[in-house]
Amino acid sequence: MFRLDNILEDWATRYKPLKHDPAASAKHKTFFRVTMIDEDNYVVRNFNTLSSPCMAYATHIDAELQQNINRISYRHVIYFLVKQDTAPQKTPHTDELAATEARYETDDMVQDLLAWLIDLQRKAGNGDRTFVSPFFSLTDKETREGLRGLQLDTANWATLPVHWNGWQVCGLSIEQIVPRDKCINPEKYITD
Protein backbone atom coordinates (compact mmCIF):
# COMPACT_ATOMS: atom_id res chain seq x y z
CA MET A 1 0.00 0.00 0.00
CA PHE A 2 1.22 3.50 -0.88
CA ARG A 3 2.25 5.43 2.25
CA LEU A 4 2.57 9.17 1.70
CA ASP A 5 3.55 9.55 5.36
CA ASN A 6 6.81 7.67 4.71
CA ILE A 7 7.61 9.95 1.78
CA LEU A 8 6.87 13.01 3.91
CA GLU A 9 9.08 11.75 6.74
CA ASP A 10 11.90 11.31 4.23
CA TRP A 11 11.42 14.92 3.07
CA ALA A 12 11.46 16.14 6.68
CA THR A 13 14.87 14.48 7.21
CA ARG A 14 16.29 16.13 4.07
CA TYR A 15 14.71 19.58 4.49
CA LYS A 16 17.13 21.80 6.44
CA PRO A 17 14.54 23.97 8.24
CA LEU A 18 13.05 20.79 9.80
CA LYS A 19 16.14 18.57 10.19
CA HIS A 20 13.92 15.69 11.38
CA ASP A 21 15.77 12.85 13.09
CA PRO A 22 13.59 9.72 13.36
CA ALA A 23 15.91 8.28 16.01
CA ALA A 24 15.66 11.34 18.27
CA SER A 25 13.41 11.50 21.29
CA ALA A 26 9.87 12.73 20.56
CA LYS A 27 10.76 16.11 22.06
CA HIS A 28 13.36 16.67 19.33
CA LYS A 29 11.47 15.26 16.35
CA THR A 30 9.94 17.57 13.77
CA PHE A 31 7.72 15.10 11.87
CA PHE A 32 4.64 13.54 13.48
CA ARG A 33 1.73 11.31 12.52
CA VAL A 34 -1.54 12.45 14.10
CA THR A 35 -5.17 11.46 13.58
CA MET A 36 -6.23 15.11 13.28
CA ILE A 37 -4.49 18.30 14.35
CA ASP A 38 -7.29 19.29 16.72
CA GLU A 39 -7.57 15.90 18.44
CA ASP A 40 -5.81 14.90 21.62
CA ASN A 41 -2.39 13.74 20.41
CA TYR A 42 1.29 14.16 21.20
CA VAL A 43 1.62 17.36 19.16
CA VAL A 44 -1.32 19.16 20.78
CA ARG A 45 -0.42 17.99 24.31
CA ASN A 46 3.21 19.07 23.94
CA PHE A 47 3.17 22.38 22.07
CA ASN A 48 5.30 23.89 24.84
CA THR A 49 8.19 21.46 24.20
CA LEU A 50 8.06 20.86 20.43
CA SER A 51 10.83 21.98 18.11
CA SER A 52 9.84 24.72 15.70
CA PRO A 53 9.20 24.46 12.83
CA CYS A 54 7.60 21.03 12.59
CA MET A 55 5.03 19.17 10.52
CA ALA A 56 2.30 16.59 11.09
CA TYR A 57 0.60 14.18 8.71
CA ALA A 58 -3.07 13.44 9.44
CA THR A 59 -3.49 9.65 9.34
CA HIS A 60 -7.29 9.62 9.19
CA ILE A 61 -8.62 8.28 5.91
CA ASP A 62 -10.83 10.55 3.81
CA ALA A 63 -11.85 8.88 0.53
CA GLU A 64 -14.65 8.65 -2.00
CA LEU A 65 -15.42 6.61 -5.09
CA GLN A 66 -15.32 8.34 -8.46
CA GLN A 67 -16.26 7.63 -12.08
CA ASN A 68 -18.65 4.71 -11.75
CA ILE A 69 -16.62 3.27 -8.83
CA ASN A 70 -13.51 2.76 -11.00
CA ARG A 71 -11.32 5.13 -8.99
CA ILE A 72 -10.84 6.19 -5.39
CA SER A 73 -10.05 9.79 -4.46
CA TYR A 74 -8.07 10.12 -1.22
CA ARG A 75 -7.55 13.45 0.56
CA HIS A 76 -4.20 13.80 2.36
CA VAL A 77 -3.78 16.58 4.93
CA ILE A 78 -0.40 17.81 6.12
CA TYR A 79 0.07 20.48 8.78
CA PHE A 80 3.04 22.84 9.07
CA LEU A 81 3.55 24.46 12.46
CA VAL A 82 5.75 27.41 13.39
CA LYS A 83 6.08 28.91 16.85
CA GLN A 84 5.85 32.66 16.53
CA ASP A 85 8.13 34.90 18.51
CA THR A 86 6.26 35.24 21.81
CA ALA A 87 8.64 37.67 23.47
CA PRO A 88 6.63 40.52 24.98
CA GLN A 89 5.68 42.84 22.16
CA LYS A 90 5.40 46.57 22.67
CA THR A 91 2.26 47.00 20.54
CA PRO A 92 -0.47 44.82 19.03
CA HIS A 93 1.03 45.72 15.65
CA THR A 94 4.38 44.05 16.46
CA ASP A 95 2.57 41.00 17.88
CA GLU A 96 0.59 40.63 14.63
CA LEU A 97 3.80 41.15 12.65
CA ALA A 98 5.40 38.18 14.49
CA ALA A 99 2.32 36.05 13.74
CA THR A 100 2.39 37.09 10.08
CA GLU A 101 6.07 36.16 9.76
CA ALA A 102 5.34 32.70 11.20
CA ARG A 103 2.42 32.25 8.77
CA TYR A 104 4.62 33.15 5.80
CA GLU A 105 7.21 30.65 7.02
CA THR A 106 4.57 27.88 6.89
CA ASP A 107 3.60 28.99 3.37
CA ASP A 108 7.24 28.79 2.29
CA MET A 109 7.52 25.22 3.66
CA VAL A 110 4.34 24.17 1.81
CA GLN A 111 5.73 25.47 -1.48
CA ASP A 112 9.09 23.77 -0.87
CA LEU A 113 7.36 20.43 -0.19
CA LEU A 114 5.21 20.72 -3.33
CA ALA A 115 8.27 21.48 -5.47
CA TRP A 116 10.06 18.44 -3.99
CA LEU A 117 7.04 16.18 -4.57
CA ILE A 118 6.76 17.37 -8.19
CA ASP A 119 10.43 16.53 -8.70
CA LEU A 120 9.93 13.15 -7.01
CA GLN A 121 6.96 12.41 -9.32
CA ARG A 122 9.18 13.21 -12.30
CA LYS A 123 11.96 10.93 -11.02
CA ALA A 124 9.52 8.10 -10.36
CA GLY A 125 7.98 8.53 -13.81
CA ASN A 126 11.43 8.43 -15.44
CA GLY A 127 12.44 5.28 -13.56
CA ASP A 128 15.20 7.12 -11.66
CA ARG A 129 17.17 4.53 -9.70
CA THR A 130 19.68 6.99 -8.21
CA PHE A 131 17.26 8.34 -5.59
CA VAL A 132 17.83 6.49 -2.30
CA SER A 133 15.64 6.67 0.79
CA PRO A 134 15.50 4.61 3.99
CA PHE A 135 11.71 5.17 4.04
CA PHE A 136 10.58 4.05 0.56
CA SER A 137 11.82 2.92 -2.83
CA LEU A 138 11.12 4.59 -6.17
CA THR A 139 11.57 1.17 -7.77
CA ASP A 140 8.51 -0.09 -5.88
CA LYS A 141 5.50 -0.25 -8.22
CA GLU A 142 3.01 0.89 -5.55
CA THR A 143 5.18 3.90 -4.68
CA ARG A 144 5.51 4.94 -8.33
CA GLU A 145 1.77 4.56 -8.94
CA GLY A 146 0.94 6.35 -5.68
CA LEU A 147 3.17 9.29 -6.57
CA ARG A 148 1.66 9.40 -10.05
CA GLY A 149 -1.81 9.69 -8.51
CA LEU A 150 -0.98 12.77 -6.41
CA GLN A 151 -2.85 15.75 -7.87
CA LEU A 152 -0.21 18.33 -6.97
CA ASP A 153 -1.53 20.85 -9.51
CA THR A 154 -4.72 21.21 -7.46
CA ALA A 155 -3.18 21.17 -3.98
CA ASN A 156 -4.60 23.82 -1.66
CA TRP A 157 -3.51 25.23 1.66
CA ALA A 158 -4.48 27.84 4.20
CA THR A 159 -3.36 29.04 7.58
CA LEU A 160 -5.76 28.08 10.33
CA PRO A 161 -7.48 30.83 12.32
CA VAL A 162 -6.66 29.01 15.53
CA HIS A 163 -3.86 30.16 17.79
CA TRP A 164 -2.38 27.36 19.91
CA ASN A 165 -0.13 28.93 22.50
CA GLY A 166 1.81 31.03 19.99
CA TRP A 167 1.87 28.41 17.21
CA GLN A 168 0.80 29.28 13.68
CA VAL A 169 -0.56 26.35 11.66
CA CYS A 170 -1.00 25.91 7.92
CA GLY A 171 -2.94 22.96 6.52
CA LEU A 172 -2.06 21.54 3.09
CA SER A 173 -4.56 19.30 1.30
CA ILE A 174 -3.50 17.02 -1.56
CA GLU A 175 -5.84 14.78 -3.53
CA GLN A 176 -4.64 11.38 -4.72
CA ILE A 177 -6.51 9.41 -7.40
CA VAL A 178 -5.94 5.66 -7.47
CA PRO A 179 -7.55 2.91 -9.54
CA ARG A 180 -9.93 0.69 -7.60
CA ASP A 181 -9.56 -3.07 -7.66
CA LYS A 182 -13.15 -4.26 -7.99
CA CYS A 183 -12.36 -7.94 -7.74
CA ILE A 184 -12.97 -10.02 -4.65
CA ASN A 185 -9.75 -11.41 -3.23
CA PRO A 186 -10.58 -14.99 -2.20
CA GLU A 187 -7.56 -15.08 0.13
CA LYS A 188 -9.39 -12.64 2.45
CA TYR A 189 -12.38 -14.93 2.93
CA ILE A 190 -13.05 -18.19 4.73
CA THR A 191 -14.44 -20.82 2.40
CA ASP A 192 -16.19 -24.03 3.34
How would you portray this structure in words?
It is a single chain. The protein is 30% helix and 22% strand. With 192 residues, the protein is α+β, with helices and mostly antiparallel strands. Strands 1, 2, 3, 4, 5 and 6 form a 6-stranded mixed sheet that branches. α2 links the parallel β1 and β2. α3 crosses α4. It is elongated and about 70 Å long. The mean pLDDT is 87.
Please work out how many helical segments DSSP would assign: 4
**Helix and strand run:** HEHEEEHHEE
**Mean pLDDT level:** 87
Radius of gyration: 19 Å
Poorly predicted runs of 5 or more residues: none
Judged by helices, strands and strand pairing, the structural class is: alpha+beta
Number of strands: 6
Major sheet details:
6 strands, mixed
Strand content: 15-25%
Distance between the termini: 29 Å
What is the helix fraction of residues, given as a range? 25-40%
Q: What characteristic shape results from the CA principal axes?
A: elongated
